[in-house]
Design a protein that fits this description.
Blueprint lengths: L1 H31 L7 H8 L3 H7 L3 H27 L4 H11 L5 H17 L3 H23 L8 H20 L5 H16 L18
Length: 217
């Protein structure tokens, strides 16, 4: 029984690995050529497999795009969870910093992931079945940030509005790091300053971002 079970698990693992290798080919094409260049033929060529092999896992281009979009969205979520776990603390402020820091790309791998996610989001927005995943993904992150803020700040703060502002700020700054207009350190400093302003009780027009440290200029 044990040997048979191991064999079944081995088959399942091999299936998942072959499927993931095809999705990785999609990500490469999307990153280097754009979503519009993605086709079953191009993916098969990039993955080094036959068209039939791709269609075995993903019968149509729409199936392939939907699976790739779900996979890259899950990858982004997993990175946030891993960053929070690595923080090794239940302190809400530390967890908030970990979440916001993960929205800002630092490494080449980070930048690749963000480029792919941006390309897929642009592709998804005019397609309701995919756009809902974008909306729900950001919505879940906003809810989490709001929950953590509620554990750290005065009760009169609109934590939902503050959470939306923090996520909008961090994702906007992420785009500026991709274009090279600011560094990851500068982006992180700005978003952390805004977080600190909420935590310290700053409200509305009285709030002002702290100036960038000279070493970040």
């Amino acid at each position: 029984m044990g040997g048979k079970g191991a064999a079944v698990r081995g088959v399942g693992t091999a299936y998942d690995e072959r499927r993931q290798s095809i999705l990785e080919a999609v990500f490469t094409i999307v990153d280097t050529e754009g979503v519009e260049r993605m086709s079953i033929r191009n993916v098969a060529q990039q993955a080094g497999v036959s068209i039939g092999r791709v269609q075995h896992y993903f019968p149509t281009k729409d199936d392939l795009l939907a699976a790739a979009f779900t996979s890259i969205t899950e990858a982004g979520g997993n990175r946030v969870r891993e960053r929070v776990a690595a923080a090794g603390t239940d302190d809400p402020i530390a967890v908030l910093r970990a979440i916001l820091a993960e929205t800002i790309p630092r490494t080449a791998a980070d930048r690749r992931l963000f480029r792919i996610m941006q390309a897929f989001e642009t592709h998804a927005l005019p397609r309701p079945s995919l756009a809902v995943q974008v909306t729900e993904g950001y919505g879940g992150l906003i809810d989490l940030i709001a929950l953590l803020l509620g554990r750290t700040v005065a009760t009169d703060l609109d934590v939902a509005a503050a959470a939306r502002e923090l996520l909008a700020l961090s994702t906007g700054l992420a785009g500026l790091t991709l274009t090279g207009n600011i560094t990851a350190d500068q982006a992180e400093h700005i978003v952390f300053a805004r977080l600190d302003s909420f935590v310290n009780g700053c409200r509305g027009s009285d709030c002002a971002l702290s100036p960038l440290r000279r070493d970040l200029l």
